[in-house]
Design brief:
The complex is a heterodimer of chains A (514) and B (124).
Chain A (H helix, E strand, L loop, with lengths): L10 H4 L23 H4 L35 H14 L20 H7 L2 H4 L11 H18 L3 E3 L5 H19 L5 E5 L5 H8 L3 E5 L9 H7 L4 E7 L11 H10 L3 E5 L19 E3 L20 E3 L11 E5 L2 E5 L19 H37 L4 E2 L9 E4 L10 H10 L6 E2 L9 E3 L7 H19 L4 H4 L12 H6 L10
Helix pairs in contact in A: 4-11, 6-11, 7-8, 11-13
Chain B lengths: L1 E4 L4 E6 L2 E6 L1 H7 L2 E5 L6 E2 L4 E7 L3 E5 L4 E6 L2 H4 L2 H5 L8 E5 L11 H11 L1
Antiparallel strand pairs in B: 1-2, 2-3, 3-9, 4-6, 5-8, 6-7, 8-9
The chains are: A alpha/beta (514), B alpha+beta (124).
């Protein structure tokens, strides 16, 4: 059956290959039930609430009274419950299985974080409450700020940025303010080819031209090319370390020194801090600004489960330009600095309030439940798991750059050459095996990239099963069983969707048809 | 009419002072199904190497850097409703924009068809 948008909604149409050739009257597959849009389930004759009839009244709307139907779907309470519960069962989540999205760090969200975040003294407060009544929350922010500074070896932190890219914006605005104060009009930001897409986007938003730095054969920044690109026009370099190929930039100190010698600043994209937390302090590497994705390194939920949070640590040179608001120790407890006054050099305010408080709580809970030794183990185990995956697959898949890797390992599609199977097909076949695919086609520095990040959450048993599934798929591809891939997924609720059609002709709105 | 090619896989075919620019067969093949093309506005001026257009495919979004400088005199309005033209006919109907050349000498830095073929053969 096709729905009114021409989208297959029942399983018989969507997955015309049914195991054993069994098709069902309902389109359901066992207890895997089909789900229609809520407008297709409900109608205007039903309701889940009992409202009293309106008393007779005289309308004051004059000529603007609505005279056509609103057409909202009416559903009973059990229908609403079932609709959303069935939809939630179609979701794949870190709570259901390994989620190896490279560069996204989908790790377990410990339940102690959730418990702490729901304590009434933290969950039921409002940002406009009098400061004297939220001293505990300010204490928490101050402690988290302290540990972020300690773990990074940096003197200052801006807590308000609400995600990694927002943190990048904060860091670049601080750099811009520092350059303005120096009276220098530098116009270029350097970013490596393998950079996260947000890096050039941030630089462009701040008014800079972006110049790309090539990678060398080892998958790292080409140092001579970088040095050649430096000059009086360069405001900053934006560099991720470990980089998006999962490799540590070994020349990072030399890079920092060269950038500083040329009068620029060093922005480090801290998305991959989870690989080095507790082991390396970015402040020791010459970093001037770095965002920390609390939703990655410090395990707060993301990817639909919660908002991001991207505090930014700043060097001595950039600290004066940090945005308001921030917490300070006053004579009667904690205070908030809300305004830029007097000769202060803060570049201003980025958010209405103080950042993602709920994420701050969870991040501090993660830090305190792990302790400093536990955080170092986080980095060690995430790197160990990634290297185990790399070592277990590199004989049959093509590793893009020689290891060891850090927290993620990068393969490309050379091993699929001549099989008729693409990276996309391979990823779709992984869905049939019960796995969310790895990051595909990123970074762009290799063809058909497959970037795998198992994280520290996975046990050896779990990683072994994943490796086994991948080895099976690689073997099938090389044996010429391309049908297993090109039509995949066969066993998911919906078959291969037409991504091109969806992008070219997106149907974003349900329309009633008679 | 002469056609030149850049290392970034754009082609430019010139007629008098005007050049028509698009991406090559090799580029469309590497990008995969193209779902969106952003072309420049007529009347804007660009220097050689400036970012002038964006191509979005199911795999990636890529910037197009103009292989020559000048003023944009026409754009391919069909690409807005039918970006698939770039996949189907990259070097004819899938052209992006026409530019009034500010410096014809810039063409000398580009490749001819034979040199471009040798260049992409070297990339394989």
């Amino acid at each position: 059956m096709m729905n009114k948008q021409g989208r297959p909604t029942d399983i018989n149409t969507a997955a015309n290959l049914s195991p054993g050739g069994v098709t069902t009257h309902t389109g359901n597959r066992g207890l895997e039930q089909d789900e229609l849009l809520i407008y297709e389930i409900g109608d205007t004759q039903r309701t889940g609430v009992d409202l009293e009839d309106l008393p007779v009244f005289e309308s004051r709307l004059g000529g603007i009274t609505r005279d056509n139907e609103i057409g909202l779907a009416g559903l009973s309470e059990p229908e609403v419950m079932r609709h959303y519960t069935r939809l939630s069962r179609k979701n794949y989540a870190i709570d259901m299985g390994l989620y190896p999205l490279g560069s996204c760090t989908m790790k377990h969200n410990p339940r102690i974080n959730e418990k702490v975040a729901r304590l009434p003294g933290l969950a039921d407060i409002h940002p406009l409450q009098p400061i004297s009544t939220v001293q505990g929350a300010l204490d928490l922010m101050d402690r988290l700020a302290h540990w972020l500074k300690t773990l990074t070896g940096m003197p200052a932190v801006a807590m308000s940025p609400k995600a990694g890219a927002h943190g990048e914006l904060c860091g670049l605005m601080a750099i811009r303010s520092a350059l303005d104060k120096r009276g220098e009009n530098r116009t270029i930001v350097l970013a490596p080819e393998s950079a996260h897409g947000t890096n050039p986007a941030t630089a462009a938003l701040c008014g800079y031209k972006v110049k790309s730095i090539p990678a060398n054969k080892a998958g790292r920044v080409d140092l001579p090319a970088l040095k050649a690109a430096l000059g009086p026009d360069v405001a900053a370099i934006m560099l991720t370390n470990p980089n998006t190929c999962g490799l540590f930039e070994r020349d990072i100190i030399e890079i920092a020194d060269a950038v500083h010698a040329a009068g620029g600043y060093f922005y480090c994209d801290g998305a991959n801090f989870n690989a080095i937390v507790g082991k390396v302090r970015p402040g020791d590497l010459g970093v001037d600004a770095m965002h920390i994705n609390l939703h990655k390194t410090f395990s707060t939920p993301h990817g639909g489960g919660g908002p991001g949070a991207g505090p930014v640590v700043l060097s001595e040179a950039l600290a004066p330009f940090a945005p308001v608001p921030y917490v300070i120790h006053g004579k009667d407890g904690f205070e908030m600095v809300e305004h830029v006054t007097g000769g202060a050099e803060s570049f201003g305010r980025m958010t209405a309030f103080h950042g993602q408080m709920g994420m701050n709580i969870r991040a501090l809970a993660f830090m305190m439940s792990h302790g400093s030794d536990g955080l170092a183990r986080v980095a060690e185990d995430s790197v160990l798991n990634a290297n185990y995956v790399m070592a277990s697959l590199q004989d049959i898949m093509t590793l893009s750059f020689e290891g060891p890797c850090m927290h993620e390992c990068l393969f490309d599609d050379r091993f699929l050459e001549g099989t008729g199977v693409t990276t996309l097909d391979f990823a779709k076949a992984m869905i049939d095996e019960g796995y969310h695919p790895m990051t595909m086609y990123f970074p762009l520095v290799v063809n058909g990239a497959m970037l795998i990040e198992p994280t520290e959450s996975e046990s050896k048993q779990s990683v072994d099963q994943f490796i086994g599934a991948l080895r099976h798929l690689v073997t099938q591809a090389k044996l010429g069983n391309s049908a297993l891939f090109t039509g995949a997924p066969y066993l998911a609720p919906l078959k291969r969707l037409d991504e091109t059609l969806a992008a070219r002709n997106p149907v974003l709105r349900w329309r009633k048809t008679d | 009419m002469t056609t030149y090619y850049s290392e970034e896989h754009e082609w430019i075919s010139t007629e008098g002072e005007t050049g028509t620019i698009g991406i090559t067969e090799y580029a469309q093949n590497a990008l995969g199904d193209i779902v969106f093309v952003e072309v420049p506005e007529v009347g804007n001026n660009y220097d050689k190497g400036d970012e002038i257009a964006v191509v979005e495919s199911v795999k990636a979004a890529s910037e197009i850097y103009t292989p020559v400088g000048g003023e944009v005199v026409a754009i391919n309005e069909n690409l807005e409703s039918d970006p698939a033209l770039v996949n189907a006919h990259p070097e004819t109907d899938g052209w992006f924009y026409k530019i009034s050349l500010s410096d014809k000498d810039e063409l000398d830095e580009l490749m001819d068809a034979a040199a471009y073929k040798a260049y992409i053969d070297g990339l394989e």
